[in-house]
């Protein structure tokens, strides 16, 4: 394969996807499939689908892992490294620039209004994300009673326990594994650990211990960033989530805004590096073993428990997010966003941009936006 695809080509093509990949994982998967399978024929349809299945079994941002996996299949470790840079960096540059604007001490009034408007819609976006994950998870569930229990536990943990929700997600996974193997022989299923305390732990937790897609970062980060370490206000956290949704590239870029609030540009870069490092390592170390991972009953069982708990955590995050809103007009924006996303089933990016426009209008009309 080394002769087929140059590293410069990988950098250019993965960078292109990183620049135009608005809309999160569905868009990323579509663009990668079009590039690698249909346009260039670098991978067969079966190889690409195997990559999707394998990366969905891993914690962390699945579309980022898929992008790295495809580049790894083309050029091994050098391809994976170049593909990761191309896919991640464009969105990172954009979101750090926006973080500097939105988190500055005296942002223009229209910026404050846009942030307050977009932030008001985030709770609806969280529910929309959770609803979109339910059908596939429900279909693969072997026991729908336990599935519902895991979902409710994840939601309750987000509302009640904040940063400790990750323990509930992992616990649900291990409960499901134990349930299915209680009559079988014992086995080993390692849980990825992290370093404790501060920004490194928060960022690493997002990258190494999140199950259920990029949006699960909300319950994993909110309590740490707002309540425990006080790096940002609740309103600023809403802005961070909104920026992660409307910028291209992985939704997990939101962690860079949290890092920027905690430690400026260096904090943003450090948070992004630590959040994405597990995805790269999972592919580099586990790539040759992905077939075995897909066939692992323990891995499948763990995801069947952690997955619905993560969906519940995402949905449950709407409660603390909604409680962050302080102005009556924001409740109207939230209701309109819920109508747009949940009843009309329209896109997330237009919803957030429309909410931002309404926020600018509220600011220009003299309503309180700070």
UniProtKB/TrEMBL annotation:
Membrane topology, record value: Multi-pass membrane protein
Lineage top rank: taxon: Bacteria
Compartment(s): Cell membrane
TM region positions: 81-103, 109-135, 147-167, 187-217, 237-262, 268-290, 302-321, 327-344, 351-369
InterPro entries membership: Chr_Tranpt_l_chain, CHR_Transporter, Chromate_transpt
Claim: Transmembrane is one of the keywords in the record: yes
Name of a matching Pfam family: Chromate_transp
Keyword terms: Cell membrane, Membrane, Transmembrane, Transmembrane helix
PANTHER family attached to this UniProt entry: CHROMATE TRANSPORT PROTEIN-RELATED, CHROMATE TRANSPORTER
Family, as annotated: Belongs to the chromate ion transporter (CHR) (TC 2.A.51) family.
Name this polypeptide is given: Chromate transporter
